[in-house]
Amino acid sequence: MKRFTVLILSLFLMLPASLAGAQNSEDAALASPKNIERFLVDYATKKNSDKKTLTNETQLTAESYDFYVFLNNLFWDTDPELKKLPEFKEIMKYAETKLEEKSKKPNTTPSSPVNELIQPLNSDYNRTQAVNYAKAWVKPGAKYRNTGNYPDFDLDCTNFASQAWVAGGNIIRKPASVSTGYYTTTSYWYALVTQTSPIGGVPTAYGWSTSWSVVDDFQAYWKSRGQSVYSASQTGLNTIISNAELGDIVQYKAAGSSRPTHSMVVTKKANGTIYLTYHSGPNNLDVLDNDIKNISEKETWYLVKF
User: Fold this and answer.
1) Do 93 and 133 fall into the same domain?
2) Do 140 and 250 belong to one domain?
3) Is 97 helix (H, G, I), strand (E, B) or coil?
4) What is the pLDDT of residue 105?
5) How many C-beta neighbours within 10 Å does residue 109 have?
6) Are residues 132 and 36 both part of a single domain?
7) Side-chain-side CA neighbours of residue 45 (13 Å)
8) Looking at the domain assignment, is residue 294 inside a domain?
9) What separation in angstroms does the CA of 294 have from each of 4, 34, 76, 265, 276?
10) Which of 4, 79, 93, 179 is at 20 to 30 A from 120, Cα to Cα?
11) 199 shares its domain with 280
């Protein structure tokens, strides 16, 4: 039996029409990213329709906002049925690639600049200032973005973490010339306004490094700058907790993925645990001071120190 035949039988009434006629194809073709995409789009549409969570589309596409929310939720272990499928690793590989591409592309209508809590207090890292920024720019159960100073991403976790680190005193590192859009690099770390409106000076375009907005590029950049990065399995979570300080960044790699896929700011440490604040939590909403022990088990945890 072909691999996707197992997947299709497992989903019963959620059989995606786009795969129904493909069961006699080669395994490699059935497990291709394009077929996985077709399947997931249909699956997400069905699932969202049942829960009445669609924003305004009756049929999702691979570029729908709700489809990206669905993919992001996979890394929060919100879909145990998909996790049982033999194609789960291929599904997660597709999801992480799709989300990484999305994290390079902002979705923003810039507003007027906001000057509070964005300037470092001094040249040294100030953990309190980083925490204050993180808590100021989060709205639990909703989405709150500093679009007056930074690009805004649908998948915003690492962009948010980078902002908190700038607020805490980390200095951006940029090339001599910064162009609008993203620059794939782990040698620089920056997000800068590249264009403003002629009236009012409102930012209308930004340039940024992928190390600013992409989870694993952020980690790679700071590791290359000599910062300590701890890693631990779920059973070694206390290693992360014991070494964490306020303002540090916690990341994780979910089961089935090949690289870290989420970034969170440590905003509280008490009662033998740490509490995390972040954008793009479940359903792509903000989360404030969530106990790390309340997050579902992950394959690998990371702590990026400053």
Assistant:
1) no
2) yes
3) helix
4) 73
5) 7
6) no
7) 20
8) yes
9) 34, 35, 11, 15, 10
10) 179
11) yes
Q: Please state, in angstroms and rounded to a whole number, the distance separating the CA atoms of residues 134 and 132.
A: 6
Q: Is 52 exposed, middle or buried (0-12, 13-18, 19+ CB in 10 A)?
A: exposed
Q: Given the structure tokens 């969530």, which residue do they identify?
A: 290
Question: Alpha-carbon distance 153 to 160, whole Å?
Answer: 9
Please, are residues 64 and 49 in contact by the beta-carbon 8 Å criterion?
A: no
Instruction: Say which CATH number the domain at 141 has.
Output: 3.90.1720.10
DSSP structure string for 194-229: EEE-TTTT-EEEEEEEHHHH-HHHHHHHHHHTT--E
Domain that holds residue 77: 3-102
Q: What six digits make up the tokens of 178?
A: 């910064």
Q: CB burial class (10 A; 0-12, 13-18, 19+) of residue 15? A: middle
**pTM summary value:** 0.80
Closest by Cα among 7, 77, 97 to 43:
7
Q: How many helices and strands in the chain, by DSSP H and E?
A: 12, 9
Q: Taking 70 as the threshold, does the pLDDT of residue 112 lie above it?
A: no
pLDDT of residue 243: 98
Question: Do 274 and 147 share a domain, yes or no?
Answer: yes
Residue 118 lies in a domain: no
Sign of the torsion angle spanned by Cα atoms 97, 100, 104, 105: positive
Closest CA to 166 of 106, 233, 202, 121: 121
Whole-number mean pLDDT of the chain? 84
Give the containing element (helix H, strand E) for 164: helix 157-167
